[in-house]
Amino acid sequence: MEEASGAKRRGGVAVKTSGGASGVELNCLPSFATARRQQLQDYLRYNYGAAVLPAGKRKYQVILAFLICSIARNHLNELANEDCILEMPSQLQKAFRPPPESCNFCAGIRSVPRVSNVDPDDFERRYAYGAGPVIVTDATVNWTAPEVFDYWFFGKIYETYGARRGAARCQFFPYKTGFRSLQEALSLDEARVNYEPGTEPWYFGWSNCDPVILKVLRKHYGRPYFLPRASENNAVDWVFMGGTGLGAHMHVS
Question: From which domain of life does this come (predicted)?
Fold first, then answer.
C-alpha cells in the first residue's frame, strides 16, 4: 500500500489507506466496472458465435462478485475500528499479570517535588521510570480543557455522538453509583450534579474510543510536553469525574 492519502490497485480492487481511525477502505466500483466491460465484450463475442458462458450466467457472476466485494469492505472497516482483532478474556489477562510490586520504593517519601519548564530528556532521566511521584506545575498551561470541560460539556458531546457504535463499545466504570451506562450517568439533574444537600454523591469514569468524539476532545488538550519522546501515546483517552465521597478503588492499571 502507499502512503495514508494514496491508493493502490490490486487484482482490480482499489485499496485505499487513511490516516484516520477508519483504516482501510475497499472501493468495489472499479471491479464492478471491469466486470461489466467484460460482460459486454462476452456478449458481443457470443453474438458472433464465440464459445462463451451464457449471458444470464455471466450476469449472476458479476452480481455475486460485487456482493462479495461489498461484504469484504464492510468487514475490513469494522476491524479497522477495533483495538484488537481477538480480545483476551479478562480473567485470562489477570492470569498473565505480573505479581504486585513491593511498595517499599515509596516508604521513605516525605515530600513531592514540583517542577516546571522541564526538558523531556531531563524528565525521562530523573522522573519517568523511577516510580516516585512528581508534580509538573505547567503541564496544562496551553490547554483550554480546564475552562471548557465540565459535566454539561460531556453531556452535550455524548448526546450528539453517543449513539455511534464506536462510542457504545467503550468501557464504562460506574463504581458505587449504580449507573448502568454512561448515558444514564450523564443525565443527572442539576441539583445532584452540584452536590446540593440531600443528593447522593457520584463518581464514574469511562474510556473514549470513538474517533469522532476524540477529535472534539483533543481540541482542548494535547500530549504533555514533558513526556519522553519515545514514550507510548495511547489512542484511547480516559475521563474520570465526580465529587468527594466516592472514587476508584485501589487497583493495578
Answer: Eukaryota
